[in-house]
């Protein structure tokens, strides 16, 4: 017989087992324990895992554009900010780059000595505009008050990491903002996080001025070129040091002319000096100029030509309100068109 099992004594046993619903499982568990007058508390919410006072947003860009967008946010919307990366290598590279751009970043990762980690955390707490570049080692177990922004420089590997990272802000009933920077290769991980957290829609896009971003990109690209040259020089110096140690241990005499090395190449030092001079000049100018009146040049106030800094959370809230108004207007127009169509049909 299909779907049934016959024992040796001729008894028929149904092979199929009915799956129980969540309510049935809870009821069965209550009966097994022998609880009387039980109270069931449902702790699941619509925004699973994140605080209600947290405003979430995202920026979709290519991998090459992430540095420019990050620098834009840090300079246009300053505040106590934690930038999370997925690896120690990314933290080191980003800290080096932001250091060249005069952002004074504070790195934090597991390979650092405990004393240095505590020192960087203390400096970050004392600076209202501090920038902490960290791995997930800072995502839990640390109570850092008044963190304004959390930036996911790379999409977290799991939804749990996303929740813990985002939980560094919007603490103790205070408001906070998270910005998830996503490149096309990270779209699958992003979608997986949204599904796990039961998000019915995508994260809203954080508003960025394309005009201001253009000048930022030129600045960041110059800093990246400098970082590449400095890395090349460090590697060459390290390789030369290794060769010297080996030669000393083997009692060998090596002629410097026979061992070409990049750190002895004056072209690298010359290129670094030229690029540093240009970078310092660009950093001395306003990053976000408002404009210049050629009609009345004497009325131009140098301070008035610089766009004021803005609160990132307020900018995001304003963008969300504007988006809702536009949707309401479109909905109103569609409703009006439907009413007109109905009238014409009656005629």
TrEMBL record:
Species of provenance: Pararge aegeria
Protein name stated in the entry: ATP-dependent RNA helicase DDX24
Keyword Mitochondrion among UniProt keywords: no
SMART domains with a match to the protein in the record: HELICc
Metal-binding is among the record's keywords: no
GO molecular function, one term: hydrolase activity
Ranges for domain Helicase C-terminal: 65-214
GO cellular component: cytosol
SUPFAM superfamilies noted in UniProt: P-loop containing nucleoside triphosphate hydrolases
Keywords associated with the record: ATP-binding, Helicase, Hydrolase, Nucleotide-binding
